[in-house]
Amino acid sequence: MKTIAKVVLVCSSMMLFGCVSSGDTQPKPKQQEQIQMPGIDVMQELMQKADIMYQTRDYEQAGNMYKKVLDVDPKNIKALYRLGNIAFRSRDWDSAKKYYDQVIEIEPRHTRAQYNLAMTYLTMAERHLKFYAAHVDSNANLDSVTKLITALEDISNPGATRQQSQQPIYQETPSSESSLDKLLDELAK
After folding, report:
1. For residue 50, which phi and psi values (nearest 5 degrees)?
2. Alpha carbon distances (Å) from 68 to 6, 22, 42, 43
3. Could you give all domains of the chain from N- to C-terminal order, each with its CATH number?
4. Half-sphere exposure of 81 (CA within 13 A, CB side)
5. Which residues contact 133 (CB under 8 A, 6 or more apart)?
6. Cα torsion at 87, 89, 93, 97 (round to 10°)?
7. What is the pLDDT of residue 175?
8. How far is CA 92 from the centre of its chain?
9. What is the per-residue pLDDT across 64-80, written as a single tens digit (0 to 9) for each?
10. How many Å separate Cα 134 from the centre of its chain?
11. Fewer CB within 10 Å, N or C, the chain?
């Protein structure tokens, strides 16, 4: 009986205190890849670099930097707004709308994002109307469409004097393209 008691005591001790081994008695924690979140200084540096690239019109690199900012801070209004401007300049209307909508969702009173979103829709409307006018039946009455296109061109290029020409207003002309370029430059500010 004493032998059984000794065996039970030894087994209990081993369970309580663990088995003696030649190595460490505690398992090593798995080494995980440490994910470092950029600090405020790193974020400021990213934004400064992106802003410099944006101001020097290196929009591709600026866009990449602003996206890195969004990886860390998905609600960074300035980065979202600037990405909207970059998308607008590259005529990526869907992306421009997406970014401006995100800015407005975060800050509904962001007047420039509201304005740029409206200009995005107007620019898209102008393009669709010009396409329609260029491809519709030649017998169709285009008076109302021409008036709309003229109004949209006036909005996108206020103060420009319209030169009378033999070409219909709905055709792409160098002057209408330059007015769009002026609009793009204004929106990029």
Report:
1. -65, -40
2. 66, 48, 11, 9
3. 40-157+168-188 (1.25.40.10)
4. 21
5. 142, 145, 146, 149, 168, 170
6. 60
7. 43
8. 11
9. 999 999 999 999 999 99
10. 33
11. N
